[in-house]
Write a structure and sequence with these properties.
Blueprint lengths: L1 H5 L9 E9 L2 E8 L14 H5 L3 E3 L8 E3 L1 E2 L11 E2 L5 H5 L4 H5 L12 E7 L2 E3 L8 H5 L9 E3 H8 L20 E8 L15 H15 L4 E6 L9 H12 L2 E4 L4 E5 L2 E7 L5 E6 L1 E6 L7 H8 L24 E3 L9 H18 L18 H5 L4 E6 L11 H9 L4 E7 L5 H13 L4 E6 L2 H14 L7 E5 L1 H5 L6 H19 L8 E4 L3 E5 L3 H12 L3 E5 L21 H14 L3 E4 L2 E9 L2 E8 L2 E7 L1 E4 L3 E3 L12 E3 H8 L10 E8 L13 H15 L4 E6 L9 H9 L3 E4 L7 E5 L2 E8 L4 E6 L2 E6 L1 E3 L3 H6 L27 E3 L9 H21 L1 E4 L4 E3 L9 H5 L5 E6 L2 E6 L9 H5 L5 E3 L4 H28 L1
Parallel strand pairs: 8-17, 9-16, 10-11, 10-16, 11-12, 18-19, 18-20, 20-21, 23-24, 23-29, 24-25, 29-40, 31-38, 32-33, 32-38, 33-34
Antiparallel strand pairs: 1-2, 2-7, 3-4, 5-6, 13-14, 14-15, 22-41, 26-27, 27-28, 30-39, 35-36, 36-37, 42-45, 43-44
Length: 956
């Protein structure tokens, strides 16, 4: 949010509604109404005096009505823009023409009750709808006692309670008596998978956020007993299964497979009634019950539909097609996030980048015509050359840090350190108003070194570096002490020691800051072309998007034909023809003037760095060298064959092999009984991960069987039926058509053996609580997907992989298609198992991200890179040999061989510096001098403790 608020090319219009949309793609006229804030944002300094003195209480809707706020307010400290507003529905002045206290106390005179709604017309080329989701109907909550019993909460309320910026600052209490609940139940699928409230779909996110909340509760209340009631555990995202399993094992959560039906209150306890899997009626008592609510369409979805001229689907989300998941029914208007359908954060972020790619395709002719280039003031060379004047800012961060670490004690300690001229606490260091205050403090106290004691520099350091540049300081003159991850999070049970450790980190950071020196931020030109590795649907979609955005693309496929795994898919669960789509996509790619396709091609070598890569291709007996600025890896995946099943291609086959048979549509020779086994070899058997699409694939094929021959018996044996999102309707349809679903325990997998000439499946049925045998004519295994065997390219680019072998993204939520190697992006099955519609969205996202450096024409290289002192260098080349990023080259300088760093490729890892025999290499921001100073700072504590011990002995 903060980055969006700081961008000169983004105008944020809050309290604004769209009235009408006219025009066509590339030329829309959008009429909007901007409602008044009654506080001038240009004058407001976010001091908070208006809220402090406002006498009018108001229900705090942001905090889910759990507390009170004021009519003059800001919803939360990190809000963007960080400007206050006056709630017109509760303000005494606006409703009764009484009270102007806020006007009297506002120093900058920002209060303006004369403001009126303003109508404007925006001329835009494209529109992206990201309106989010709405709340579930009250009726769905009331069935479980919500509203009658105060200790029945919904999960959004618990989210605010467990949040460090929430009404209790993260302290878990129940509303009835403000005591800590010791026994808590989570009920899943409230307002989801429920036809009675017109929400038959699965909301996709509830299983994961429930276990996340439960984990946070256990961290705050280790003695709490938490039970989670599931119908199916749907943790199908990348790494989600493992996270769920680890949390259950670590915190001892009790998992019950049941749908509770009724909540009563007996003797001050909440009584929960349910029927377990053995058919027994049970009642348990809890101190608090949390209802895991699903994602509904926005409350005004129908109004949005009318205003924007788009259609809604049967569930009142924006209607999109399976093969164009980001495009609404009106050209030029795109949809991303939860309004497109229920989804978790990583997929929402992926769709956001995909939506940006579609807009870039549409508006490529207008690129840079209205762009505002952010300019920074010149660096204050005189200030930076003075003796170090260090400012230390210790972040409070609610209970996230201050709940464990005594941040005031850390601040007071920082004041005693050498060269520290200012030490302050700050509520949220990364908030927009805090960053503005940081700039003001730099100027007021003439600070030339900054230490921020907060959270991880991995995500926040670039934000503070940018703030320093805005204040006229070099971006390298900041050091961060990670007192969240390294103190508060790892020592929650020992506040005293955590505080002492925080002091150590701050002392070491200050010591290092004294030795920091300005570093030069360099720009590297970018070759305006892309290499896409992999000619499946993901690679082709990314290539086509990049080409449609105006860039040259080289598409490399090792097989003789394009198409990848989609060639084996004969039909889709939603009814579209995948082969017709594939053929059209291949035609667009091969006929595009900006795409050069290489089939039966191997990559012999890739060298270079973001903006300047060189790749050598081998096509048969020939080789070709291409230059490009970025790389998109779409190396795909392949079907896994578990070893414990008797595959024979006739009686025991995979779902893809079944699909081939079904495409022939022959009722005459079709088997009378088909048994499908889910998670064959997956989820802890031979593969750890869930392959996500197998359940939907089984439903698709089961429904196709019933369409061809309704008399065929179909069994689906499963652990959890993961028909997430809108696929739940196909699960319901399959059950209505007579498909039999049998659940088996994860640790008691079905066995397949051949009796006579037919397969027999032995499975433990949890409902019958006994083992049964099912004779079959055909056994179909839903096998998982594993990465393709294209490790050579991955190794050349130094892209890390997960434990399962899938390519690892830079950050699961913030950078889901980027990698640790700048300029390299991952899409499709190379990233993780996913359905075709998700592959298409991610392919667009990869193209959207890859296009950024191509469009800019340059990249700025972070200054935290190695630097070679040529005078000391003896040309041994050891640094070049050990560099994991091939970022060091040997060159001749005055007839002597010297090492030289390719700064755009360097990651600042320091391997070269640690191996240099003559200490000729330093890393910017981590020089030997600075590191030694930091180590001395750590040793200072030991010296102080030794003096204290001696004084204590002498005094005794």
């Amino acid at each position: 949010m903060v980055e969006a608020g700081r961008s000169p090319n983004i105008e944020i219009l809050t309290l604004t509604e769209v009235l009408s949309v006219e025009g066509e793609p590339g030329n829309f006229r959008v009429k909007i109404r901007v409602n008044p804030r009654y506080i001038d944002p240009d004058k407001c300094t976010a001091c908070g005096d208006c809220m402090k003195y406002c006498p009018r209480l108001a229900i705090d809707t942001y905090n889910e009505n759990l507390t009170f706020t004021r009519a003059a307010r800001i919803d939360f400290p990190q809000a963007v823009p960080t400007k206050y507003y006056i709630d017109a529905s509760t303000c005494l002045r606006l409703n009764h023409e009484t009270c102007q206290l806020c006007t009297n106390v506002c120093g900058p005179k920002a209060i303006d009750f004369s403001q009126k709604p303003e109508e404007r017309v925006l001329e835009v080329g494209a529109i992206i709808l990201a309106t989010g989701f709405g709340k579930v109907p009250k009726e769905a909550l009331e069935k479980f006692g919500y509203g009658r019993f105060s200790d029945v909460l919904h999960s959004l309320e618990m989210e605010r309670i467990t949040c460090v910026s929430g009404p209790t600052e993260g302290e878990v209490i129940r509303p009835s008596d403000f005591k800590h609940p010791k026994k808590i139940a989570y009920i899943q699928c409230v307002g989801s998978r429920d036809v009675t409230c017109e929400r038959p779909y699965c909301s996709s996110v509830c299983c994961m956020y429930a276990v996340k909340q439960a984990s946070v509760i256990k961290e705050h209340e280790p003695s709490a007993e938490i039970t989670l009631f599931f119908m199916d555990v749907r943790t199908q995202g990348k790494g989600f299964d493992e996270s769920f399993r680890n949390a259950v094992e670590k915190y001892g959560f009790r998992i019950v497979r049941a749908r509770p039906g009724k909540v009563d209150k007996i003797d001050g306890k909440l009584a929960l009634n349910y029927v377990d899997e053995e058919g027994k009626v049970k009642r348990e008592y809890f101190d608090a019950i949390v209802l895991s609510v699903g994602l509904s369409p926005p409350e005004d979805a129908e109004k949005l539909s009318q205003v924007f001229g788009i259609e809604l689907n049967e569930f009142k989300f924006a209607k999109t097609s399976y093969l164009s998941p980001l495009e609404t029914t009106r050209p030029g208007i795109y949809v991303i996030g939860a309004f497109q359908g229920p989804k978790d954060i990583p997929e929402s972020v992926i769709q956001a980048s995909g939506g940006a790619a579609l807009v870039s395709e549409l508006l490529k002719e207008g690129r840079w015509k209205a762009t505002v280039v952010k300019e920074y003031p010149p660096e204050d060379v005189e200030l930076m050359s003075d003796e170090p004047r260090i400012g230390v800012f210790v972040c409070h961060c609610g209970v996230n840090i201050a709940g464990v670490v005594d941040v005031k004690a850390v601040r007071d300690y920082a004041k005693t350190l050498p060269n520290v001229v200012l030490a302050e606490n700050i509520l949220y260091a990364c908030a927009q108003d805090s960053l503005e205050q940081l700039k003001e403090k730099i100027k007021k106290y003439r600070l030339n070194r900054i230490v921020v004691s907060a959270c991880t520099p991995r995500t926040h350091e670039p934000l503070f570096q940018d703030t320093l540049r805005e204040a006229g300081l070099n971006l390298a003159l900041i050091e961060m002490a990670n007192i969240r991850d390294q103190c508060a999070w790892v020592h929650p049970d020992n506040p005293q020691k955590a505080t002492e450790k925080a002091k150590d980190l701050v002392r070491m950071a200050v010591a290092k800051a004294r030795r920091l020196k300005p570093l030069e931020l360099q720009r590297v030109k970018v070759t305006p072309s892309a290499l896409v590795v992999g000619g499946g649907v993901a690679g082709m979609t990314s290539a086509l998007s990049l080409a449609d955005q105006g860039f040259e693309v080289y598409l490399v496929e090792r097989e003789k034909d394009l198409g990848g795994n989609l060639r084996r898919v004969k039909f889709l669960i939603t009814g579209e023809d995948p082969q017709a789509f594939l053929n059209e996509l291949i035609h667009k790619v091969t006929s595009h003037p900006k795409i050069k396709v290489f089939t039966q091609a191997e990559i012999d070598n890739i060298s270079g760095y973001i903006g300047n890569y060189t790749t050598t291709l081998r096509i048969g007996d020939k080789s070709e060298i291409i230059n490009h600025g970025v790389v998109v890896l779409a190396t795909g995946g392949r079907e896994y064959r578990p070893s414990r099943y008797p595959f024979d291609g006739k009686r025991v086959i995979t779902q893809l092999e079944l699909e081939e048979r079904l495409s022939k549509n022959s009722k005459r020779s079709f088997p009378k009984r088909v048994v499908m086994i889910q998670c064959a070899g997956s989820r802890g058997e031979e593969l750890k991960h869930c392959s996500k699409f197998c359940c939907v694939q089984a439903l698709k094929n089961a429904l196709k069987i019933k369409e061809i021959n309704p008399d065929t018996e179909v069994y689906i044996l499963y652990i959890d039926m993961r028909a997430y999102g809108f696929y739940e309707k196909y699960y319901l349809e399959a059950r209505k058509k007579g498909v039999k679903f049998v659940r088996f325990p994860q640790r008691r997998r079905p066995e397949v053996f051949i009796k006579g000439d037919k397969p027999v499946v032995r499975v433990f049925d949890v409902l019958l609580n006994k083992e049964i045998e099912i004779p079959a004519d055909l056994c179909v295994l839903s096998v998982g997907v594993i990465p393709s065997e294209n490790n050579q390219v991955v190794n050349m680019l130094k892209v890390p992989v997960s434990e399962e072998g899938f390519l690892l993204e830079a950050h699961v939520k913030l950078r889901p298609v980027e990698t640790a190697t700048d300029g390299v992006y991952i899409v499709g099955l190379a990233h993780s198992p996913q359905l075709l519609t998700e592959v298409l969205a991610q392919a667009k996202a990869g193209a959207g991200k890859a296009a950024i450096p191509l469009a800019k024409g340059f990249v700025e290289v972070p200054p935290i890179v190695a630097e070679v002192d040529e005078a000391r260098c003896i040309g041994c080349a050891l640094c070049a040999e050990v560099c994991p990023f091939s970022a060091i080259e040997m060159v001749k300088v005055d007839k002597r061989r010297k090492a030289r760093v390719i700064k755009a490729a360097c990651k600042g890892c320091g391997v070269c510096a640690s191996h240099c025999p003559v200490f000729a290499i330093d890393v910017g921001g981590f020089t030997g001098e600075a590191i030694l100073e930091q180590l001395k700072g750590f040793g200072e504590r030991e010296r102080i403790e030794e003096v204290e011990r001696k004084e204590e002995i002498a005094g005794g």
